[in-house]
Amino acid sequence: MTTAGDIMHRGAQWIPAHETLDRAAQLMRELNVGALPISDENERLCGILTDRDIVIGCVAVGHDPAKVTAGEMAQGTPRWIEAGADVGDVLREMQDHQIRRLPVIENKRLVGMISEADLAQHLTEDQIHTWAESVYAKSSMR
After folding, report:
1. How far apart are CA 88 and CA 19, in angstroms?
2. What pTM value is reported for the model?
């Protein structure tokens, strides 16, 4: 059985909710990623911040990314998956919620992220096709 832990990108990092968006953008550049999980003061997942969120939700509306925090951008209920979950569960979670990145949690701690690139490296063409069709067909590009 292939698990979330098998296909995830290890070394994912949190952005604490109190950090500013300019710091989040710097961290994204350093890590070469387009999304960061947001953690609360107890290092629990409270949201996911994307580069698009920073541009559309902050800069484009005239706010200063040095004054807006990651926590202020966190919206809705963040989705995640346990490291031991089957890859089928990973695909269902991403498809059902039309998401392209999924934090992987083990013992209530962040251990990795699953992105489109991870899926492309580990899944069959049929699985990728089904996933992409489901996520992008109705997606608002989350």
Report:
1. 34
2. 0.84
Other CB atoms within 10 Å distance of the CB of residue 55: 14
The model's pLDDT over 85-128, given as tens digits with 9 standing for 90+, comes to 999 999 999 988 888 899 999 988 899 999 988 988 888 888 88
DSSP structure string for 64-103 = -TTTSBHHHH--SPPP-EETTSBHHHHHHHHHHTT-S-EE
Q: For residue 135, what is the enclosing H or E element?
A: helix 125-137
Pairing of strands 35-39, 15-16: parallel
End-to-end Cα spacing for the chain: 29
Q: Note whether 15 and 39 are within 8 A (CB).
A: yes
